[in-house]
Design goal:
With about 525 residues, this protein is α/β, with parallel strands linked by helices. The protein contains 18 helices and 6 strands. The protein has 3 domains: about 140 residues, no CATH class; about 170 residues, Ribonuclease H-like superfamily/Ribonuclease H (Nucleotidyltransferase, domain 5, 2-Layer Sandwich); about 130 residues, no CATH class.
Amino acid sequence: MRKKDGHDTGKSVPCPKSGGYDVFTRSQRNNPMPHVIPFQTELRPVLPTVRGNVDYRNFEEDLLRIEEILDLSGIERMFVALSLERWLAQSGQRVPTAKEQSKFQLRSAQALRCLVLKQLLGEDVRGMSRRLAECPLFQWFCGIDRLEEIRVPSKSQLDRFFHWLPQEQLDQVIGRLIRASATVTADGQTNRLRLANDLELDTVWMDSTCVEANVHYPIDWVLLRDATRSLMKATALIRRHGLKHRMQEPGYFLREMNRQCIAMSQAGKAEDSKKARKRVLRRMKAIVGVVQRHARRHRDLLDACWQETDWTRPEAERVLGGIDGILAQLPAALKQAHERIIGGRLVANEDKILSLYDKNLHVIVRGKAGVEVEFGNTLLIAEQAQGLVVDWKLHRESAPADSRQLGSSLERIESRVGSGVLKAVGGDRGFDSAANRELLAGKELFNGLCPRGVDELSRRRHGKRFGEVQRRRSQTEARISILKNDFFGRPMRAKGYEHRAMSVSWSVLAHNLWVLARLETLDESENELREAA
């Protein structure tokens, strides 16, 4: 392994090590894991020494430390073992050979490392595949560097890595990392990560934010444009494969809809803007009606005669599913646009269609500076003093008030760090309520929540501990900004709630590894003491 002074002492293979399963919790010990076959050490090229760029050098040191944390914490072995258990269950009665199992284990370790690196770099799958092909450091970290040939995971393989484990099991891996970072673990062993200072898990700070979806601003008539584009592109695809009904070229309808979109944008500047917008919407609805009929006829033709194309049935099903998804939502989109523009009536937020391509989105009114309304899902975040995220929850449905999320968050935190470790909770006034004050008192936790009442805030603000907790609370806003801008991506590219929740879990894992990698280690502390002497 390369030391931080730049001297090369050989490289350890970034693969799961053989041995016991002391990295698992008591409940997991009662459910035996499949045996992980030890890896044989391979000859691998030495990393080049790069000088002249301090940012590269710092990032290299972070990756070296993360590689050490993956081994010391046991989360890599846990990730491989959980992947192996799932793979063997899917194999059914067939018992894989040792070579097949060894190959799958190596691929599982690569999946963990590639996704951690992807989140650290903030790349999409295509950009990540290119970066892996370019950089020897990234190839070493992901375990794909070889003497004879380097096989870089493709963008499709990286996308499969993204779903390598279910989200519930990935959250277990993150929980294991949090427990391993404690100074003394539940089984009485000392801190495995060799941190110089104790990790403060006795106080957590909570806040909520919106994970914005990758959609355009949901103007009602734009949904009609989106539907026209999707249906005509699918129709053109079917026609290119030899199945045709009599109609004008699909591009004609796209041009006509674009003209109406321009007219709708300009109608707001006219004196009779309301009447002008109504006239344009009626023309849009007429175009959509024709487009809908053409798309349905081509859809039925493909369903009946797909054998006449060069598609397989699953490939035809992909096209059919795309058309069906738009056709199913089109009546509601037409009604929504009619109610808002022609009827002049409001549509309830829970009944609105915000995107034809992304489900489980919500209108979130937060009143932030510059962003009055956001569109996406509510995310609850809890961090400790050094910035380690100890709890996270992305809500599928419309999120409850912050005060109603406190109890469930405390239960999840205690399950990860252990009961009796948490001593205080901080948060803004959105988390304060009579029920939460009673809950914290019953759990004997210090109440660092900002009171809603002015009189109560004036009374408590002079308390030393309360003041310390509230002053530290502002850093949680910065932590959210780091997560959203550097790890989630702004906006997050994942579509659909399941993909967004998985992306949040991968981002939290990469973020926590990044935070731990930047903390001082025992070796660094000892070196500083020797230099000072």
